């Protein structure tokens, strides 16, 4: 696959009771994740998204602090990826964004995400 077909994105993931893996770097025993509903996770992300869009918060800073993905260490950066490498809803949302845009809430087996397309 040529790099032309690839996108680059960062994301913020919040896991919840319905997540495939109920543990993360910041919650290794899954204590918080197991008690978080999908609704609560989505609400938290919605307010984070509003803060980022209004300029009150920086995407990378927030990702570093709150994302349940190990990409948090890189400000949420997932690097480049092509079709078929991510879960379908995540891939479709990322490809639909323009560079610099931030998605609405995206649901996958991993949890709820907001995605920022970076290239």
UniProtKB/TrEMBL annotation:
GO terms for molecular function: peptidyl-prolyl cis-trans isomerase activity. It catalyses: [protein]-peptidylproline (omega=180) = [protein]-peptidylproline (omega=0). Residues 4-119 form the PpiC domain. Its EC number is 5.2.1.8. It comes from the Eukaryota. Pfam families: Rotamase (PF00639). PROSITE patterns: PPIC_PPIASE_1, PPIC_PPIASE_2. Residues 13-23 have a biased composition (Basic residues). Belongs to the PpiC/parvulin rotamase family. Prolyl cis/trans isomerase with specificity for phospho-Ser-Pro bonds. This is Peptidyl-prolyl cis-trans isomerase. It comes from Brassica carinata (Ethiopian mustard).
């Amino acid at each position: 696959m040529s790099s032309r077909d690839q996108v680059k994105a960062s994301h913020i993931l919040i896991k919840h009771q319905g997540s495939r893996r109920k543990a993360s770097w910041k919650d290794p025993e899954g204590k918080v994740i197991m008690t978080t509903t999908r609704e609560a996770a989505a609400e938290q992300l919605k307010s984070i998204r509003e803060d980022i869009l209004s300029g009150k918060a920086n995407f990378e800073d927030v990702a570093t602090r709150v994302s349940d993905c190990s990409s948090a260490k890189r400000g949420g950066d997932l690097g480049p990826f092509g079709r078929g490498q991510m879960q379908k809803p995540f891939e479709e949302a990322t490809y639909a964004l323009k560079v610099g845009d931030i998605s609405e809430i995206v649901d996958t087996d991993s949890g709820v995400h907001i995605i920022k397309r970076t290239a």
